[in-house]
């Protein structure tokens, strides 16, 4: 009888320990996500340095960080990160992959450079909105963006992107806002982009682009 009770106590204790580890996993990874972003970017205007403090992190504390929105204000689970026009410099922050429940990313109007990661669909798996406009990103638009099946908004305009537009992106059924204007893209606009939804403004000022809704290709 005594042995049976001891076994039950141990079993219950182990169950609570496993549940505790599971519930804290999201918290730990989201904190690691924000730490990595802060460390990887040059904060020229001191916005992150003055707001993102990790010395005494408690449940919900990261939800008060500048530009951070959480699913629940009392839980360290990041929903959106909005850091537009903050003078941030550096490459695309790969640490975003640790914000495993994030849906909105706005890094527009900064000084981010280099290529957009080829595996971006594995970094922002559940993104509904991705705004990287008005930076200095270069290289090709990664075709893996087509695997971000929840995207409603994709803004890559005002960068230095080259090459062709991946046709697969045009098949994203939820995509309603799309812009690659003011880049250095070339080639025909894929027919997968419905010209009744995506107008000329979405593709403007790319000297090498042609086809609907722009001028016909020669």
From TrEMBL:
Protein name: Leucine-rich repeat-containing N-terminal plant-type domain-containing protein
Naturally occurring in which organism (per UniProt): Salix suchowensis
Domain Leucine-rich repeat-containing N-terminal plant-type: 28-71
Signal peptide per UniProt: 1-26
Signal listed as a keyword: yes
Top-level lineage group: Eukaryota
Family matches, as InterPro entries: DNA_repair-toleration, Leu-rich_rpt, LRR_dom_sf, LRR_N_plant-typ
Entries under SUPFAM superfamilies matching the protein: L domain-like
Keywords: Leucine-rich repeat, Repeat, Signal
